[in-house]
Amino acid sequence: MIPECTDKSQSCRCRFATMNRPKILMTNPSIPQIAFDLLGRQCELVRVENEKRSSILEKVAGVDAIFWATKETLDGEILDKAGAQMKTVGAMSAGVNNIDVPELKKRGIKLGNTPGVLDDAVAEIAVLLALSVARRLHEGRLKIERNEWTPSLTWMLGQDIVGSTVGIVGLGGIGRAIAKRLKAFQVDKILYTGHREKPEGQELGANFVSLDTLVKDSDFVIVSCPLTTETRGMFNDDIFSKMKSSAVFVNVSRGEVVDQDALVRALKEKKIFGAGLDVMTPEPLPPDNELVKLPNAVLIPHLGSATLKTRNAMAELTAQNILRGLGGEEMFTPVC
In the 8-state DSSP scheme, what is residue 207? Predict the structure, then answer.
């Protein structure tokens, strides 16, 4: 849900009474229309031809704020090109791993993101992937396409989620939303790992454990942690070797959390049962990538937050953060 502005004493336009209409760079032509409508009432919107870095650099000079909705990296070069007057950035994403946050802090630039509003949609994708891998959805489709539908009582047997142990790496908003949904499937245990034990984990009946314990004991390992220097490449050959051969691995975080070559080896050598990925490296994934060739890999093209309602909510929250930043108010969801 988008927080409502509680300041009813003045219109948003009045916030900018001491300045000309602020200029906002909209970094992606496909930003939902709700953001253009909301910001366009009181600001001058600068549009780009596409979301590529070159197009952004061409248009960013002189803007007062940036609506960041691209996989490109927001760094010192773009900030220098924008100019010292640019003090507000709204990121239409929960993760900010493609934004140089320390550089923004050093320059006194406000940054807001969109946590919370995408939790439910991403959690649905995580459950979808877990079930799809466990019941061999992709492999079953391949059997039909190849005229290999030869059933027997032991043909195409999958893994049960009922009575299973589920390990969630990162019990933030998305991780908690996943746990809530999986409880409806009558899982036996929910484990989680992270920096510390959380009260929310206790409320969910989840057990806090080390990463090693989680991967060794879990039938389903679901990754929903942010990408940081600590988590980059976390899932490597060593971690995959500790998982059950019947384990299902799901990643709805960022592709770089996984050593993808190590994952391919684990899948080929049947060290794990299968993997469901919403995120990969690189994105878009080339069609000749080894992952695409594997029957025990279920791949979808980073669709975690891709519902109409969720994307509109993300765009609206980003716009509200920008307006509050420009008006000298604290953003609804500040990063810095």
Answer: E
Alpha-carbon radius of gyration of the chain: 22
Q: What distance in Å separates the CA atoms of residue 333 and residue 320, rounded to the nearest whole number?
A: 10
Beta strands in the chain (DSSP E): 23-26, 44-47, 65-68, 88-91, 110-112, 165-169, 189-193, 207-208, 220-223, 248-251, 274-277, 297-299
The total number of residues shown for the chain amounts to 336
Q: Of 302, 311, 325, 332, which one is the catalytic site residue? A: 302
Please give the helix or strand (H or E) that residue 219 lies within, else none. Answer: none
290-326 pLDDT, tens per residue?
Answer: 999 999 999 999 999 999 999 999 999 999 999 999 9
Q: Which two tokens stand for residue 164?
A: 């299973």
**Tokens representing 35?**
């953001």
What digits encode the pLDDT tens for the residues 77-118?
Answer: 999 999 999 999 999 999 999 999 999 999 999 999 999 999
Q: 165 pairs with which residues across the strands? A: 189
Distance CA 178, CA 175 (A): 5
302 is known as an active-site residue? yes
Cα–Cα distance between 315 and 232 in angstroms, integer?
Answer: 28
Instruction: Kindly state the DSSP code that residue 99 receives in the 8-state scheme.
Output: B
Residue among 121, 223, 219 nearest 168 (CA): 223
| Distance of alpha carbon 185 from alpha carbon 275, whole angstroms | 19
Structure token digits, residue 24: 């906002």
